[in-house]
Design goal:
By secondary structure, the chain is mainly α. 45% of the residues lie in helices and 10% in strands. Strands 1-3-2 form a three-stranded antiparallel beta sheet, sandwiched between helices. Strand 2 and strand 3 form a beta hairpin. Helix 6 crosses helix 7. 15% of the residues are buried.
């Protein structure tokens, strides 16, 4: 919301130079009861300008609930997020979730366990669930479900 509009609404409801308390909120992160509403508004404006949809933002905050760390990662681009369902559409649905995660990470170029990419003729012999386990431990990949969509996220 425009900051001037917010000030006008705030002053109409609370009054000029009056204190407020936040008792209830619907946000992806924790908000203190004495949080500055105008600072929150500025922060939410910067989040809305980052280009991520609401589900992706929810996934980031589910993986890391620390608002400042997530905002810093968004500003600096120091995170990765992959829509697993989008990448794996059309694949065999009988695969184990972790196997699919390993295959998605490999498909998207995040498999750094080998010095070279896996040759096509070797794909069927790979244990992709183990690849995901190693990448989740070594690189911090985590899976998170948001509104029926699975994401892989790392900071």
């Amino acid at each position: 919301m425009d900051s001037e509009k917010l000030k006008s609404i705030y002053n109409d409801i609370v009054g000029k130079k009056q204190e407020h308390i936040i008792l209830d909120y619907d946000a992806l992160f924790n908000i203190s009861e004495y949080e500055n509403i105008f600072t929150l508004n500025e922060m939410l404006e910067s989040i809305s300008e980052c280009g991520l949809d609401n589900d992706m933002l929810t996934a980031l905050f589910k993986v890391n609930p620390d608002r400042d760390e997530v905002l810093e990662a968004i500003e600096n681009g120091t995170f990765d997020i992959i829509n697993v369902d989008e990448v794996s559409s059309g694949w065999n649905v009988s695969l184990d979730r972790e196997e699919v995660f390993g295959m998605v990470l490999n498909e998207e170029g995040y498999n750094n366990l080998f010095s070279q990419s896996i040759p096509e003729e070797m794909i069927d012999y790979m244990d992709f669930s183990q690849i995901y386990t190693c990448l989740s431990i070594n690189d911090g990949w985590q899976s998170v479900d948001v509104n029926g969509i699975t994401y892989l996220v790392r900071f």
